[in-house]
Amino acid sequence: MRVKLTGYVRHNGARYAPGSILSLPERDGQRLVRLHVAVELPEAPMPLTPQQQSAESSPKSPDPPAPPAAKEGPEFVAALTPDEVADALEYVQDPDFVRRVIEIEQAKPEPRAEVIEVAQRRLAALAGGE
Length: 130
What we know:
The structure is a single chain. This protein is of the alpha+beta class. It contains six helices and five strands. The protein folds into two domains: 2-41; 70-127, no CATH class. Helix 4 packs parallel to helix 6 (113-127) and helix 5 (95-107) packs antiparallel against helix 6. The longest helix has 15 residues, at 113-127. The radius of gyration is 27 Å and the shape is elongated. The two termini are 51 Å apart.
């Protein structure tokens, strides 16, 4: 039986803090639950057999990345930090979108070279067929 402790418990000479998860014989676990110092947890799933593991690790076609949401248009992306721009553009497949981010950044009174550089790298990757 698996239990999660809700109070401090001393079991078989060891002390356990609240939140600890213990696997105990049924009788011991029921005693702790009756004393209101533990709650019963569902049993842990059985380990997978080698056949099940190979079936689960078989290659699956990955879902295509989602396009940026409407609130994440080029204007939104151009307002992000350089690291955030890199993360956002990683999933963009439209070169026109990336070009628009570059145009918006260049039109700013103080364009950020890092953002332009990140966008140009993504544009080059798209042109290269990545």
